[in-house]
Prior knowledge:
The protein has 18 helices and four strands. By secondary structure, it is mainly alpha-helical.
Amino acid sequence: MSLARLSLQxxxxxxxxxxxxxxxxxxxxxxxxxxxxxxxxxxxxxPQPATTAEPAPLPSVDSVNPDRFGAKPADAxxxxxxxGLYKTAYNLALVRAQNGDPAAQTLVAEILSRGLGVPLxxxxxxxxxxxxAEQGVPESQFQYALMLLDGRYVKKDTKGAYALMQAAAxxxxxxxxxxxxQMLVQQDSGDAGLAKAVSYxxxxxxxGLADAQYAMSQIYANGVGGKPRxxxxxxxxxxxxxxxxxxxxxxxxxxxxxxxxxxxxxxxSAFGWTKQAAEGGNVAAQNRLAKLYMQGIGTDPDxxxxxAWYIVARRAGLIDQEMDDFLQGLSDDQTKQALQKANRxx
Length: 346
């Protein structure tokens, strides 16, 4: 099932709230990067009105707990679900769902929405999410709010989605907290919108949600939304998100470590975070890693690996004139080795 989810990446637009130009944190003596980027490190970028949406992440089956559905740990249907007996879980839950059990309705909706043991049926899942949402199950309120925003399987209803997202957020659903914060920013792109959203971002960040940790890092980095500028706190939040493999946070954290912003300079760790993001497929990180190898920042200089990583980034559509000039300066043998290594890189 593909559900619309307000995207942090979409809200981190290229301008400050009052229209000031965004700034990136450069590597030493950089030249502008142009072309296609999957993510760019952002210093003065804050949540802005959403222009696109992305699928909402669904937790793995192993991470699902009965509280998420409003079920009890001893629930037979939930137990079957946890053991991977999805068809059994569906059959057990369906009877109870038809009798009005909100936990069972949520479980049926989850199984249908993911096509676990039964044919995927998002429209039918929407009906069960709606019934459970009416009975106050936060998970169903969140999922049905996404469907109301998306308008693919039910009639689009922004106001209804707002109310349900807020209810789920207040009940403690971390994704609802994050997405409701995004909705508040979307409604009011000024500092007033951020001030309303901050408490929801904070609650979601405290649960460990990387998206929210990154959002709060940007708020502290810029001292907005009623928060004073606090580079040390922003860097701690970037580190928390980076440890969860949030690639934009990894790139930003690396840049802060190079600059010595919010803490001590740490070139070796900066190299490590950039490399992790690059190996994860982030094109901007791949180009930045090439520069680190080229300049010997946090690692020994390696012109061949610098060329290889830039070739990988360039193949993905990123064009950097400085790195193009660097490639032209390699010897034929170095170019050949760089191409060979690029072909073996992620």
